[in-house]
Amino acid sequence: MLPQPPPPPPRSPWAGGGGGGGGGRGSSRRRAGQRARRSGEKEAAGGGGGAARLGSCPLPSPPPPEWRRRWPGRAQPRSNVPCRRQQPQPSPCPGAGEDTRSCRGASEDGDMGLRPHASPQHTPPPGVPQATHAMLRWLWLLGLPLVLWAASPAGGCPARCDCAPQLRMVACPRRRLTSIPEGIPSETRVLELSKNRIRCLNPGDLAPFPLLEELDLSENIIAHVEPGAFGHLPRLRSLRLRGNQLKLIPPGVFAQLANLTLLDLSENQLVILLDFTFQGLRSLQSLEVADNHLVFISPRAFAGLLGLRQLTLERCNLTALSAEALAPLQGLEALRLRHLGIAALEDQSLGHLPHLRHLEIDSWPPLVALAAGSLRGLNLSSLSVTHTNVSAVPAAALRHLAHLATLNLSHNPIGAVPRGAFRDLLRLRELHLAGARLAVVEPQAFLGLRQMRLLNLSDNLLSTLEEGAFHSVHTLETLRVDRNPLACDCRLLWVLQRRKTLNFDGQRPACSSPAALRGDALWDFPDSVLFDYFVCQKPKIRDRKLQHVSAHQGQTVSFLCRAEGQPAPAVVWVSPRHRVITATSSGRASVLPGGTLEIRSALVQDSGTYICIASNAGGNDTYFATLTVRGSPVNRTLGSGEANATARNDTQVLLKFTLDLKTILVSTAMGCITFLGVVLFCFLLLFVWSRGRGQHKNNFSVEYSFRKVDGPAAAAGQGGARKFNMKMI
């Protein structure tokens, strides 16, 4: 004997109908819709909460068509199973004296008449297969309330919504709703109301759903949200308000959403973010504020968002990025700044974000350069600066990013990659420079990139990519050089030799020159013919006639050095002081197109022998020229072929020399006059001083006695002392 089935489980709002004429949230309109979906039965609904009857026993109504469409393959209660006893009484259950164990009304137990028929032998009723009988019994044991909730939309799902009981989900998109619909179960966890006509959210609209975890109100016409509208949703984790008409969010609207992790406010009409707009969202991890009319972000607008991990500011009217406004985001890891009108990234404007790892700057047309200190203080692992007007590799700004692993500089007007532009990025693994105007990659351009795995140079103006540009090609795994006018010569031979191990990312780089190979893909060449087609011609300087030029100081001097080869050779000059002069050199000396050396305002120290070096991948050629600069300044230009000065220049030299002599004579005369004037002034002072000392004795006498000398002469000369009279003038 089989055991009796267990008593029905407690009623749940997700289980649909119950006793008492109508099934809880049902209405006459819903019951009419339910009766219309029944398979031809016309009996009136009784106390079983909308259950169909055959004879005198209540049977489950057939599931609505949308139930079959949303959950195919689900076991469905059969409506053609006859009851054990069929009597014509209008009462839903047998009369007095009948066996009430075999069939009970829904009003008694709330099970909508789906309990298995009880009998001493537990055998199925006549005409009911054994498998069907067993299935009905197991449906009761394993979750009959869920089946009944899906089968009876009047009890647990609004008529204009779709419901998934196993997910506790109610979806009402595109229903033209103007408010929150009635009849939503209080145990709903996921509520989707997108693409409707809801205008505002008031306190209490969402209060009946305290277990709600995900709420989608995207693409409505919500223009105002009252404070407290989300106050009864402590479990809410995801809130989407994208595509509405919000212009201002009052502080405190989200104050009680402590568990919210995702907030989408994109595609609204927000103009300003006030202080403490997001106060209380301590668990928020992702914030979307794209496609708004933002012109200002208050300094404390993001206060309290200590757990924020991702922030997106896109298509706003911001003209500056406030470091003070971003300072509270201490936990921020990813920052996306797209389609903004900001012209410069100020020094250390992002330096207060110690955990920032991913920075994306996209579509800033006014941005022309990155300042040297704009990224100082950051510890980025990924940096993307795309669709701006940055015209050179920002080597100075990148110098501080020692842990950078991915760098994207695509779609910027960068024309060349100079030597050592990325030498400080020792951990860089991916470099993207696609869609730029890149025409030159200088030798050792990628010096120091020992860990580079991916290089994307597609869609540029490159004619070649030499092996000497890399620190080491052995670490390279993926190379993109497609959509470039490649010249297939010996410079690309290293690519073909590694084509079996290199990944071209499914693209086919092809030759643009020479004409015989135009359009041929690099991997179409057999190994046996590589050295026949991919060759280079050593450069040769055409005019090797010795150039010896004499010039005066201040002249402009030029030397010719025309070379030919395949590929076209690069020409540099070496000065007598061993300085290398190139086309990009600054100063008085530079190399013009065609290899001509030009020295402006020549000086005496420029004299000596200059060396022209023409080189390409096939070799090099050299040429010498001599310059002698005399000290006399001349206002004329001396070319490499000039031997004598013209009469006009001689006249200018004589005039200039005459003017210089007059200047010297005038200066000398002025100096002499000044000296004589000073001397006369000194004598005048002495004269005045002497006159101020009073009368002086001009005459005085001096007596002088001669020393005695032995001998006759001495005796004869004794006559006494002699006197001298002296007069002072």
From TrEMBL:
<keyword id="KW-0393">Immunoglobulin domain</keyword>
<dbReference type="InterPro" id="IPR013098">
    <property type="entry name" value="Ig_I-set"/>
</dbReference>
<feature type="transmembrane region" description="Helical">
    <location>
        <begin position="664"/>
        <end position="689"/>
    </location>
</feature>
<keyword id="KW-0325">Glycoprotein</keyword>
<keyword id="KW-0433">Leucine-rich repeat</keyword>
<feature type="compositionally biased region" description="Pro residues">
    <location>
        <begin position="1"/>
        <end position="12"/>
    </location>
</feature>
<dbReference type="InterPro" id="IPR032675">
    <property type="entry name" value="LRR_dom_sf"/>
</dbReference>
<keyword id="KW-0812">Transmembrane</keyword>
<keyword id="KW-1015">Disulfide bond</keyword>
<dbReference type="InterPro" id="IPR003599">
    <property type="entry name" value="Ig_sub"/>
</dbReference>
<keyword id="KW-0472">Membrane</keyword>
<protein>
    <submittedName>
        <fullName>Leucine rich repeat and Ig domain containing 3</fullName>
    </submittedName>
</protein>
<feature type="compositionally biased region" description="Basic residues">
    <location>
        <begin position="27"/>
        <end position="37"/>
    </location>
</feature>
<feature type="region of interest" description="Disordered">
    <location>
        <begin position="1"/>
        <end position="129"/>
    </location>
</feature>
<dbReference type="InterPro" id="IPR003591">
    <property type="entry name" value="Leu-rich_rpt_typical-subtyp"/>
</dbReference>
<dbReference type="Pfam" id="PF07679">
    <property type="entry name" value="I-set"/>
</dbReference>
<keyword id="KW-1133">Transmembrane helix</keyword>
<dbReference type="InterPro" id="IPR036179">
    <property type="entry name" value="Ig-like_dom_sf"/>
</dbReference>
<dbReference type="InterPro" id="IPR050541">
    <property type="entry name" value="LRR_TM_domain-containing"/>
</dbReference>
<dbReference type="GO" id="GO:0005886">
    <property type="term" value="C:plasma membrane"/>
</dbReference>
<keyword id="KW-0732">Signal</keyword>
<feature type="domain" description="Ig-like">
    <location>
        <begin position="539"/>
        <end position="628"/>
    </location>
</feature>
<dbReference type="Pfam" id="PF13855">
    <property type="entry name" value="LRR_8"/>
</dbReference>
<dbReference type="InterPro" id="IPR013783">
    <property type="entry name" value="Ig-like_fold"/>
</dbReference>
<dbReference type="InterPro" id="IPR003598">
    <property type="entry name" value="Ig_sub2"/>
</dbReference>
<keyword id="KW-0677">Repeat</keyword>
<dbReference type="InterPro" id="IPR000372">
    <property type="entry name" value="LRRNT"/>
</dbReference>
<dbReference type="InterPro" id="IPR000483">
    <property type="entry name" value="Cys-rich_flank_reg_C"/>
</dbReference>
<dbReference type="InterPro" id="IPR001611">
    <property type="entry name" value="Leu-rich_rpt"/>
</dbReference>
<feature type="compositionally biased region" description="Gly residues">
    <location>
        <begin position="15"/>
        <end position="26"/>
    </location>
</feature>
<dbReference type="InterPro" id="IPR007110">
    <property type="entry name" value="Ig-like_dom"/>
</dbReference>
<dbReference type="GO" id="GO:0038023">
    <property type="term" value="F:signaling receptor activity"/>
</dbReference>
